[in-house]
Amino acid sequence: MANAIFRPISKIFRNMAWTSGNGETLLRLQEDGNFVVYRNGKPAWQAEGVYPYGESAVMQQDGNLVVYDASQTAVWASNTSGKPGAELAIQDDGNVVIYYQGKAIWHTNTAG
Q: How confident is the model at residue 1 (pLDDT cuts 50, 70, 90)?
């Protein structure tokens, strides 16, 4: 299978996930508000400070991946703004990466 690419503006809400092409890697905004990468069904990474506040996650047009709370206040960000058109890749190898002009600018470092 191929890596799954999510372009601006891709958005998920609680109890939803972005999934890799092979289905083995998930970036999930959990029902409890946590933002977690799962590899083969096991947690591999979580965004600091999100639990229990996460309500939505957005890959923004400015290249920033952001988790918002119920009042639309950012509770976590990849800090990759200023890169319009950057894409979020949920990779079959277990890594979650933001690419800008073909170069990785952020990742979860969870590849197998």
A: low
- Report whether 60 contacts 34 (CB < 8 A): no
Domains of the chain, residue spans = 4-102
Q: How far apart are CA 86 and CA 84, in angstroms?
A: 6
What's the CA gap between 99 and 33, in Å, rounded? 25
Confidence of residue 3 (pLDDT cuts 50, 70, 90): confident
| Rounded CA separation 30/92 (Å) | 20
Tokens of 2: 């191929």
| Angle at CA of residue 100, ends 8 and 73, nearest 5° | 45
Domain 4-102, classified CATH 2.90.10.10, yes or no: yes
pLDDT digits (tens, 9 = 90+) for 90-101: 999 999 999 999
**Residue 6 in tokens:** 């999510």
CA nearest 98: which of 13, 24, 18, 33? 18
Res 4: pLDDT? 85
